[in-house]
Here is the input.
Amino acid sequence: MYIFDSIKKELEDILNKEAGSLKLEIPPEHVDGDFAVSLGDPNKTKELAEKINGKELEFVENAKAAGPFLNITLKKSKIYNEVIKEVKKIGEDYGNSSSGKGKKALIEYSSPNIAKPIGVGHLRSTVIGEALARVYEALGFTVIRDNFLGDWGTQFGKLIYAYKKWGDKDRVAKNPMEELKDLYVRFEKEAQNNDSLEEKAREISKKLEEKDKEFEKLWKEFRNLSIKEFEKIYDVLNIKFDHYTFESNFVQKAKEIIEDGLGDGRVKETETGTAVAVEMDGLPSYVLMTQNGYTLYIARDLAALKGRLEEYKPDVFLYIVGNEQTLHFKQMFAFAKKAGYLNKKTEVKHVPFGMVLFGGKKMSTRKGTAVSLEKLIEESVKRSGELIKQKSPDLTPEEQDKISKIVGIGAVVYSSLRQSREKNIVFDWDKALDIESASAPYLQYTYARINSIIKKAKESFGESEVGGNHFEFENESEFELVKQILIFPKVVRSVIIFNSPHIICTYLEKLAHLFNSFYNDTSVIKTKDDNLRRSRLELVASVALVIKKGLNLLNVDVPERM
Ligand code: ARG
Here is the structure.
């Protein structure tokens, strides 16, 4: 049990509260207390404070009533010691828990469409999904990383038409995503002045659905090329999916679902022969299949939901998909519940996120205004290189290159995580690479800075400098740091309540900020008293460890030097 949980339990026991029910928060600065507990009823807090103060407790020094709050003061030197010892002992597993032990979480994320470059919208899904996967794992869940590949739809009729008419095999093989995207964009452009193109594309789509040999071969080729390209990016981001789910595998099963629905009135056939899902839970009805038997995205998605529930029997099933698809998921879940394949055993959730905007505009592949993820990362690494050269001119070019990669990739990943998930984010280079605050480079730099302090201390005072097992502090700023470290396990656990990794970003930025203000006032290495200096070194080592661990949960790497 973490020290944080022990403190909580101590209070819960004495207040006769159910285990885990008490909310302990770090209060705003002006409040006199280390933690605040909100009890709601201002008439009772006085009495409860007296109850706490009447007992000798292990971690809690005293409690003060303040309206509906209890302000708790901790036994500071005890906590200081125990927390540093705890972090030392647990090391890089600090923050892990076992609440998800024996449970399975299926996380669907990234889910790009084939024959299009992965754009920054899919980037957001990819990085949020990977961060959540890591956090669920840290909490003991067995995690299945699933990538739902958009490999079906009328757009492939268009693409095949464009490829056959204007495409060049060698050029596509060389640079598949850009070429295929250009072909698609060209189709859209030419179709504006030529009505017959849409019709021709529809015919191809229909034939593809009927498994026409030539078209199927082309389409599979596009898919293979696409997966290869996607995996280059996943490699750069250090992401490995356990599974690809192909949307195209669910065409037949979607038809079965529609058949079933027609049987019990969930699906109706219109006069023209279109299959429509009826209104459910007050949500608008929608088309599942056209009159010529062409299934729609939602029908295939429903079948894929059913299929995966049967295959994986997950306890938690998360869809990390942009908020423009919120209605889609509501409709899908309502249908699946009515149909009976979605039940209480699985908690299914759409985890929506806002768009990524560039200069205030949304990107569109169709209009050719999308920025590919590959280019974005390239640019970020380049810009980080300039930053590193300026910050660390003494490093070798190889070291500079290696660090630029870590920083450049980290900056892109972190900047799509740090804001609240549901907000639209505006990508801004100056902010993403701001070494002074609120960015991956800021946290990475803080980490590397601490490493260099420790290294210097070892050089000046010998290998044994970090060590010992009684730790002391002098200033409130040191205790504040320990308090922030103390709550880390709770912060990690709260991520899965909201499925919001940015909670970790907010936490880490505060930790780094507390460290930097401590370090501005206090020279660790010049501390005269041996034990105080050793304690401070252990303190900053703990900060570094938590920064590294927190960033690791977000899939952001740290350089040892910077
Ligand atoms: N491929 C879709 C798109 O890019 C996202 C798929 C999301 N997942 C799902 N099960 N519908 O818009």
